Amino acid sequence: MGSDQSKNNMTKLEINSFSHWNSGDVLQNIVRGPFAEWLVHHALGIDPGKHRDPWAEFDVPYRGTGLEVKAAAYFQRWEQKKPAIIFPTPKKQRNGIGFVFCLLGKEDDWKTRREPDPLDMSEWLFWVVACQKLPETETISLDPFRKLFGDAIRFDQVRGEVDKLISEAQETNTGVTLKHEPCPLTDKQQRAIANMVNNDRTFIPENETAEEKKYREYLIAESDGLFKAYGKRPVFEIPEDWGDLDMSFADLSGK
Hints:
The chain contains nine helices and eight strands. The protein is an alpha/beta fold. β1 and β2 form a beta hairpin.
């Protein structure tokens, strides 16, 4: 009888009750981060999906690349002697176009114990930062962060800044050309390999010579480097007129 009654009671529980119990206090550190990811989805005008995927490649996938989101707040659930705002910038997460940093509340919240309203967008400040502009350190506190990246933006400005970042990266990465240096491959061979890498960088042709392999691997290494820096892969071009070239083959070799 007791077991049957327990089962009947369980069927009346609602997932929303659990969600509120587990994540209803957005001012908790472990909740604020996912909430900020959800905010950035909405700032960019994209659907966050039915559920958050903590193992996804990016916190926020967007326009063929992705963003990492980091959040901090002046107010903490515990009393503080002074605020300690530190943003993590892990190198292993620098695989997309950039980071969106989110800061909740007012500077004296830690002292007055005022609780900010996370659903009020005027309570938030944001910075959009390209991965290649992040410091070598894997954390950065607020004062040096502001010196590096300047004034914050508001919620309704996030999308414009992210779109600008992606456009700048696309301008940098589109139409990468290779300067002609002494090379055992003909122009036609180099063009064929460049087109192959553009279409499918994982493809390995049969009967590939050592010179062709070396050239293909140079292009792949350059593609990977630009993707890591800007979140977008280049389109390699081998022009007919070598006088128009602006990137050397030697540069790609790392020599």
